[in-house]
Amino acid sequence: MSEKPQIKTKMKIVELNPDVIKIPPIRVTSVWDPDEYEVFKASLEADGQGSAIICVKEGETYWLADGLHRLQEAKLKAWPKVTVAFKEGTIVDAMLRNLYMNRLRGKTKASEEVTLIRSLIEQHHLSMEDIQRRTGLSQDLIEQRESIGKALPEVQESLDQDQISLGVAYQLSRLPPGPGQLNLLMALLQHIPPMTTKQVQAIVDESLKIIASQVNNPPPPKPEIPIPTYTCSLCGQKWPEGEVIGKNVCLSCFGLAKDYIQELLKKRKEGKTPEQILAERAAEGAIAKLSQDSN
Asked: Which of 100, 269, 277, 278 has its C-alpha lying 20 to 30 A from 36's C-alpha?
């Protein structure tokens, strides 16, 4: 078990106007349901502020580390003063304290932790070892959040909405961000029952093998042969011969359904499992993106 960071200097107490306290632009905020928040507000009405708001003083600036809800309520109620416990430091110290204190409560948005850790690494140039030492969080957790921070926004939104677990979000983040990652996410959201992290890991492992194989051994270029075109009777646009069906109806007008069904039937005839099919679809999107970027 990792040790909690040690506070080496004793905190000082001061009474401040709530408006002078600055909130770091990137932070983690505890998530409360409406009933919990009503109880919290009632306790403020009955007992006052209660515990002190925690800040870090940088020069003449007091950066908020913990106590956002108390600060917000104090401003709404126009309290002239709030009790603040602080020690000297920087905005980075405030961000680190905010990260581990809210983490201890266990009710935070994962995407906020991801954004905060990425900011500490990329903007404030802290190493993962620095963050681990100064917050007490495990290296695995920090590396996981840092990786998820590079995933598509759709992955982080699904994580915040509890549609996928942290483990699944991390596995998705191992794929190159792009169509392949999004394809697999959409498939997972529709899968009943939900896949376990171990199942998703196996799919991503297989997909990464396919990507490596395709990138290292690209197929030879196909000779370009002129393809006759036909005018779609519905949209009026010209389409290559292979993209019209029936009585000159383009694939766009006919819809994607039949194409998907035919592909799925073909894969089943080849004896592939649904997991292998998902891995190939994820890899195809990623390879297409990598090929596009290289050109």
From this structure: 100
